[in-house]
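Re: beginner question about structure tokens

> Can someone show what the tokenized structure looks like for a real chain? I only ever see the sequence side.

Sure, here's an example I had lying around. Input first:
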Amino acid sequence: MSPPRRESESEEPDRIAGFAHPRGTYDLIGQDVPLARAARAIRAGRPPQAWLIAGPPGIGKATLAYRIARYVLRYGATPAGPPDLAVSSTEAVSRQIEAQSHPGLLELSRQENERGKLKTVLDVDEVRRLGAFFGMTAEAGGWRVAILDSADEMNDNAANALLKILEEPPSRGLLMLVSHAPGRLLPTIRSRTQRLDLKPLDEESLNNALAQMLPHIEGKDRSSLLRIAEGSLGLGLRLSGEEGLKLARDAET
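And the corresponding structure tokens:
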């Protein structure tokens, strides 16, 4: 089992204060094409050993990774589940993933240093956890899934350790690398993964999402936020406070 590594949710690199972490987000907005591609591979029983989920920050990469993880840990690489890989939040697997207590899922990201602050890099000790994790026997012939978010934050030693894992991929194991800038990764890592490219959200999808998640922001403020976010829901949410809105208004001016 992979226990939680942090006590403070606010210290997670991919969490926006006041909103759910991607592991607890069930709506994937505006990414039907990469979702359909992933679904075809999984439901046909032919997922790659490793996916490189790439695209700008805040557009749903980690949300897609957790959606895939829930499905694979619930149904395996079979067509038994929904075609869109949706798994309800009421399912046991979803509750375990939200609680970071599912034995079949390993989440890797930057950790806290001895002063309780997030490290600036994802280091080799974190990546080396993959070896022991994939070496364990999955329960009842199931799968093991690991999410590394984000791969761009690995230092050189961590990247080399990851490469060794990719050179000897485990059976019934799925590794997903979230990357905002895949061109910065080692060519040997990119060549051993299958790309899933996500694009910035279209204006209509982003506007609808902001209206639903930020109902108190209307009119010119939402229009300004929409333009400065440039297709990134994550950026829009991060800028939704007073300082961010002021920045958006100033940018419009």
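Each token stands for a local structural state, so reading them left to right follows the chain. Residues 1-10 have pLDDT under 50 and may be disordered.
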